[in-house]
Amino acid sequence: MFWTKVFIPTLKETPKEADSLSHQLLLRAGFVRMLMAGAYTYLPLGLRVLEKIQAIIRQEMNACGASELLLPALHPLDLWQKTGRDKDLGEVMLRLKDRRGRNLVLGPTHEEIITDLVKNNISSYRQLPLILYQIQTKFRDEIRPRFGLIRACEFIMKDAYSFDKDEAGLDKNYSLIFEAYKKIFLRCGLKTLITEADSGIMGGKVSHEFMAPAALGEDVVCVCPECLQASAAGSDLCPKCNSKADKVNTIEVGHIFKLGLKYSQALGANFSDIKGNLSPIVMGCYGIGVSRLISAVIEQNNDKDGIIFPKEIAPFEVIVLPLDVTNNEIMKEALDMYNQLNAEGFSTLIDDRDERAGVKFKDADLIGVPLSIVIGKKNIEEKKVELRVRKTKETFILSKGEALKSVVDLV
Amino acid sequence: MFWTKVFIPTLKETPKEADSLSHQLLLRAGFVRMLMAGAYTYLPLGLRVLEKIQAIIRQEMNACGASELLLPALHPLDLWQKTGRDKDLGEVMLRLKDRRGRNLVLGPTHEEIITDLVKNNISSYRQLPLILYQIQTKFRDEIRPRFGLIRACEFIMKDAYSFDKDEAGLDKNYSLIFEAYKKIFLRCGLKTLITEADSGIMGGKVSHEFMAPAALGEDVVCVCPECLQASAAGSDLCPKCNSKADKVNTIEVGHIFKLGLKYSQALGANFSDIKGNLSPIVMGCYGIGVSRLISAVIEQNNDKDGIIFPKEIAPFEVIVLPLDVTNNEIMKEALDMYNQLNAEGFSTLIDDRDERAGVKFKDADLIGVPLSIVIGKKNIEEKKVELRVRKTKETFILSKGEALKSVVDLV
Predict the structure, then answer these.
(1) Which residue, A87, A181, B96, B310, is most buried by CB atoms nearer than 10 A?
(2) Strand, coil or helix: what is B105?
(3) Is A200 touching B (CB cutoff 8 A)?
(4) Contacts of residue B220, Cβ cutoff 8 Å, sequence gap at least 6
């Protein structure tokens, strides 16, 4: 794509509202803009990253045999009253009335809604097991929205739900999704620590959190320097080997729960077994903070010049930098390279702005595209281009063929 | 995918709530479920159709040089007060307060929000022209939600906005998107009539509507039987040739507007020209009712047995029907065919339920997959399969190789 058409409003100055490194970089690199505290616009580059993360999540969830659906954001309050969670969530839940006086809430999560759906559409053991998921906007009236996408009032979550006949079935699905989560975070280039966690208002007995280490993180995880066991804060001694554990600040990016019967009993989601006896469906739920994940990745992958995107979720894989767009020869070579990269299937950006070389280098570093191909006057005279690696700052003077081959090898 | 894992709760009976043919079919075929009046869950098959429509829209919008972003659903009321549209929209706009007492609205559309974004990020003629779009959930407190996805309170829209230096630029972008809309509806298999329309509360002088003929449609379009000119209702005589026009019921699926300066002036979105003079940006806006489009397509493409999906937006291109899943030989052949179709890149469903042949044929017709490949005992003894064409009900007894070749030819 062409820089001049994509809308990438990079900033030289750091906006006042930026209260964390990742937020600062998201704003400066033109990935997001704040509409009001807690509500963000995803600009084209931010949306591209979001979509790449979502594609990874979909692949790994589908590989678990899960099916995607999409539940409404507007819910009737009465479903929440049946589980009592309208009280548990309290002021976090945004409430409104429509013109007919219906009491509505904006979904902060969807356990009640999906359980009601399954109650009305599943009746037999023959329809189980089942895993359903969605990628959907959630709304929470946070008392203190901050750190940009990390604690927002409107944010994107992937929430999955498993439905089983019995505990053994739940255990199996829980393990399956547990492993899928490890793959998802690994593919996103995110380091995580996994801890057993408290289930809180979600209910159920067993839950695990996936925590991304980051200086600004508000959740503390203890990590044993001896055996590398991670555990929830409070346990200062390693529960496995009793050594003194280190405290690490983290951001919660995933949380999975064995819910058991809490929702199916409260909402009457039963199935009949082979003998015709009715039992409540055994449920699990599995969340990933999708929009927050972008910030967590940036917290872990940056340097003084900007973001260093892992290649699987970078907004583009390669950027072509013609250093002088008024020079026909340079533009011809740059467009040629751009077309070849696209033809090879690489997502490619070309910086076609009439800007100085310094501006282009700075912006390419800032937005974190893994590879740049620089087309300048001196090199093309020798039929060469320059390949730059964002992460290591290495540069290579190569023929066009060698440069293409290097992109194939590196991406 | 396997039917038993996808969650396709087809219904034999028509639910009471179904107040139109398309809604009835969407419910019976397991594409959507109502959570409450005006709010629907997209089940996996419904979501697949939605995503195919969205992919077509993205391709055609990107081909116009448009960039995708994503604006928030929660808006501060004060931006709407600046244009006075909080009053224009009145009770249609869902309003709420957060815990800090901020006055918020749920976005019924996004002109104010995108104009504010552009105002804060565009300052020079060098950044224009620009086309931005999003596919986003909108909220409208309809006085009478009905016909399922056709008039919902929570629905999905594609809204695009063009930003230009002058009227000539607007005219160019307007024509570009006008042509893109024709392609989008054609690819979705939807017949539309195009009329000049009233701009209403959107503002601006010129607007065109894309209207899909359907018996339940609430908007009447006049079509001249002589010259085929379509025009807005009221004009009973054809404005082109003066013949008496026929009245056709239609559903509005697209609406495009030359907004001009209404929003840029009200919100102060200016650009500086080459001499440094400030002028308001000239805007256009371009909507498609994405979720409603599914219903419109179904209204136009069905028979007594169910939906007949156009191939580009069908939830699956092919369905494999093993008529007896307890027969190992049948299942082996069916899975073999299923794997080959997937390997060839066709989106394929296999009905692996332990159900009678009649149930499988009925459901395959109901959900509207264009082609079925039937694996039954008699045919496989002769190394044959049966190919069924949903639209024409034609059947062909073919070798497996011939069946695969026919799928390639027909899809």
Answers:
(1) A181
(2) strand
(3) no
(4) B233, B247, B248, B249, B250
